[in-house]
Amino acid sequence: MKTLEFLIQRLVKAVIVVLGVVILNFLLIQLAPGDPASVLAGEAGAGDEQFIAQLRAQFGLDQPVYVQLWSYLQNILSGDLGYSYRNQVPVAQLIMERLPATLLLTGSAFIFSLILGVVLGVLAAYKRGSFGDSLIMTGALIFYATPLFWVALMAVLVFSIHLDLLPPFDMETIGANYTGWARVVDIAHHLVLPTVTLGLFFTAVYTRLTRASMLEVMNLDFVKTARAKGVPKGRIIRRHVLRNAILPVFTFASVQAGQLVGGAVLTETVFAWPGIGRLMFDALMQRDYPVLLGVFLVTAIVVVLVNLVTDLLYRFVDPRIETAR
Amino acid sequence: MNATTPLLQVENLSIELPAGLDRKYAVENLSYTLNAGEILCVVGESGSGKSMTANAIMGLLPSYLKPSSGRILLKGRDLLAMSEAELARERGRTVSMIFQEPLSALNPLMTVGDQIAEVMLVHGEGDAASREQRVLELLDYVGLPDPASLRHSYPFRLSGGQRQRVMIAMALALEPAMLIADEPTTALDVTTQAQILDLIRRIQRAKGMGVLFITHDFGVVADIADKVVVMEKGLVVEQGTADEVLNRPKHPYTRRLIAAVPHPDENATRADADGDVLLEVRGLRKTYRSGGGLFTRPRIVKAVDDVSFTLRRGETLGVVGESGSGKSTLGRCILKLTDVDGGQILYRGKDIVPLSQAAFRPLRRHLQMVFQDPFASLNPRQTIGRILTDGPVANGMPLAEAEKKARELLSLVGLDPSAYDRYPHEFSGGQRQRVGIARALALDPELLVADESVSALDVSVQAQVLDLLQDLQKKLNIAVIFITHDLRVAAEVCDKIAVMYRGAIVEFGPPGEVFNAPRHAYTQQLIAAIPGRHWNPRAAVA
């Protein structure tokens, strides 16, 4: 059972990596100037030393760093991510509330960009040198080079403000209280702009990658073998070229998949999407460190898991991997 | 088709090259016939257009090349007049093709069984079950072990010879009337080559197929051809039966090619080199470990296993072996390009194994290497002059003196001194290999390791480079370790031959002895596998 052995090895390594990330993040946060107590005190309008000291004692911030780290680690291992100073709710609860929205957005963007990118790449390679090829590649270059926030703002300007086709922000129509299918349709409607905005960059990357990889594979000897066998062109593209050309795309897709949780901060902020990204952004501004650390932890776990799944999938996508290790 | 129509008739075929190349046609006015049950060999050096004719028959020419005149009649029907769809129907059904590189000619992500079955699938033959049955039959027929499990293997699990067998099985799937084999054994070891040639001949006899066999190796031609076509620069210079062309060649080009075929003169004796001992290798060992992470056991390969020999000044030692025998690793060990695991390398009586890289550096200039690939071993962004002067300058020679020496070296290796200011891409393979030799000689070495230095070259160029090496050796009295897979070449140029097998030297002696009285079973096998052994090219052009 080579795969099982591999899985166990990797899981052990994954736990070590995540623990390392937790410790590193905790220490990095300690390096940042200012602490939650001073921010809280400042907002409460009571700036005197005594009140701050009291707050620090209350949150355990007056303990030495290693004691704080140790108790944090103990809490993490028992499943307790801490308590948000600001929102007065457990961090785990806060993250679980926001996670589905982010996963919906990043997941849709992932699927959107992967499918569209590969299809466009195949078309461009198949019609190499044609007008269609130039059009696709120019488009890809434009979206590859344009900053995400600008695309987002322009999309809002054109599709929401001028054309009034799509809602510019939030995840649902406020106050409409849709249920069932109506709610699904409403969310899908709100999803379009952020998904396209977030996905366009990766669409461009996949298009370019697929096209280049297809053209390279088309020149390989086994494609000639396939032609010599009398395989029709369409089947050669599907069965022989695309299957081999998809490998680098797959590699890059795993990079995008690693950003499923942490990669949408900008998009969520522009479109007021109630997800993890905005939670993190707000927590950062408010020095809400337990929330920040919790988000970091979840992000790290997702990255490690995605990598693990990718490596497992690789063995199916490319049978040569197993022995090459 | 009536009985008198030949299987394949190529009539006045010309294929135009894009403008601006050194000649107008890739092939010009090419005509030949292939009958059923015949093996026709097309022989020529690289650039002769021999592969082009095969690709034209299959309709596999690159899009910028179009046949400009002539006909290719397959069973009386003109292939050049067919549409792409019609051609696709014939490919794999009437004509199939096998290629040179078994490593890259199979789709790495499809099981070999699926690739064989695909031929029948796309031609609409049988159903899934009958195709499956046929795949197993074919795998068995081409001599592959355990078809039932091999069928589910991916190509990377198979050796080069096995992959070539899969290619042959694929080509035979629909029992085509004609098989085109484009250098099918060039990338294989000599013993594997003998097996594959044998298989092709056996199948051809059994099925009465016509085989168009493209090769550069006259030894292979002597082994299998019924008829021979010799091509030079896109033109047919000579054609006839195998006996006529091989034993009574008329055209000067053919005679030149045949004269260049390496052939050991079995009666020649060489004066024993009487120089002093330059290099002595004692009990050299090198093992490769691969894999081996935190949790896994490493894979261990003994690349060099207890190898010992001595080499005198002015002597040439041939190290012969197949891929994976450890012959290249041995060369790298001697030059300290890789660490060794045990043993001694005494250079002028001093063990160089324990020396640190820094301590060895002053000695490095005495031990030089000529590499296999003349295209990859010269920096494409440096002029020949820069390539030749870099070494001496790094060793403290003033630039002006190094430059003078480089120009001398260029004429020594038979190149025009004007080559000094040119770049490697302006030279042919043989010329580049001369530059490689000049580069090695620039440091006045006492020992030259030539690792497959002529195997990438055409046979006539190979003969020139071998002559050059021998000449220089006489002039400069250097010792040469000549690493090669080709026993014929080794026997022609070496004073002593060491046959390597799985890291160990299994046979050691002068060429005559190794050839006439091989003691080890592996050496006997190697000698038996040499293509064209019964044919004496020297007699043909005498």
TrEMBL record, chain A:
Pfam families per the UniProt record, alphabetical: BPD_transp_1, BPD_transp_1_N
UniProt-listed InterPro entries: BPD_transp_1_N (IPR045621), MetI-like (IPR000515), MetI-like_sf (IPR035906)
Superkingdom as given in the UniProt entry: Bacteria
Transmembrane segments: 12-32, 103-126, 138-161, 187-206, 245-271, 291-314
GO terms for cellular component: plasma membrane
Main location as per UniProt: membrane
Keyword list, A-Z: Cell membrane, Membrane, Transmembrane, Transmembrane helix, Transport
One GO term of the biological process aspect: transmembrane transport
Cell compartment(s), UniProt: Cell membrane
Membrane topology type: Multi-pass membrane protein
Chain ranges of the ABC transmembrane type-1 domain: 99-314
PANTHER family on file: ABC TRANSPORTER PERMEASE PROTEIN (PTHR43163:SF9), DIPEPTIDE TRANSPORT SYSTEM PERMEASE PROTEIN DPPB-RELATED (PTHR43163)
Similarity annotation: Belongs to the binding-protein-dependent transport system permease family.
Name of the protein this chain belongs to: Peptide/nickel transport system permease protein
Higher taxonomy: Bacteria, Pseudomonadati, Pseudomonadota, Alphaproteobacteria, Hyphomicrobiales
Automatic annotation (TrEMBL), chain B:
GO cellular component, one term: plasma membrane
Pfam families: ABC_tran, oligo_HPY
Gene Ontology process terms (BP): peptide transport; transmembrane transport
Gene Ontology MF: a single term: ATP binding
Keywords: ATP-binding, Nucleotide-binding, Transport
Source species, domain of life: Bacteria
Record keyword ATP-binding present: yes
UniProt domain ABC transporter: residue ranges: 8-258, 279-527
Family annotation (Gene3D superfamilies): P-loop containing nucleotide triphosphate hydrolases
Compartments reported by the entry: Cell inner membrane
Membrane topology of this protein: Peripheral membrane protein
Family the UniProt entry places it in: Belongs to the ABC transporter superfamily.
Protein name as it appears in the record: Peptide/nickel transport system ATP-binding protein
Record organism: Chelatococcus composti
Taxonomic lineage of the native organism: Bacteria, Pseudomonadati, Pseudomonadota, Alphaproteobacteria, Hyphomicrobiales
